[in-house]
Amino acid sequence: MLLDRSLRRRLTPERRTKIRRNLATFHFLGGDYRAALEEYTTLLAEFGDDSGVPVASVLECRFMAATCRMELGEDQRAARELRSLLNEYLRLLPSELERILEVRVQLATLLSNTGETNAARELLRQVLAAATTEESQLHAEQARRMLARLDELGR
Question: Which Pfam families match (predicted)?
Fold first, then answer.
């Protein structure tokens, strides 16, 4: 573990969290998804001990952990987590349109890669229906391209 016990005692919880997030991001961007997943998992465990952590931070961390699982080929677990996250964003943070669209596109990508094309298509249609802002058009374009590709492949 990077943070030994003596160092952990000297750092505030906020500082430890920031260091761990930075480390997780470093591993993720470097393609070391296993190490990143370990950091995100530790963060989530630490968040569980602190009810003062913003919901958005917890959901963001879960999203990144699910993305790591997807990259590691843990498709079933990643799909379960992304489905759960989508429901939680819709319930707890419905105003986070960009993140909701991103989760839908990510889940649709995973489902189309695992052969669940009907479910993927439904998610992509939901993205197109919900992408009403200028900022959300990137997600809409992604959804259009993915639907066209599924059509091309006859899926």
Answer: TPR_6
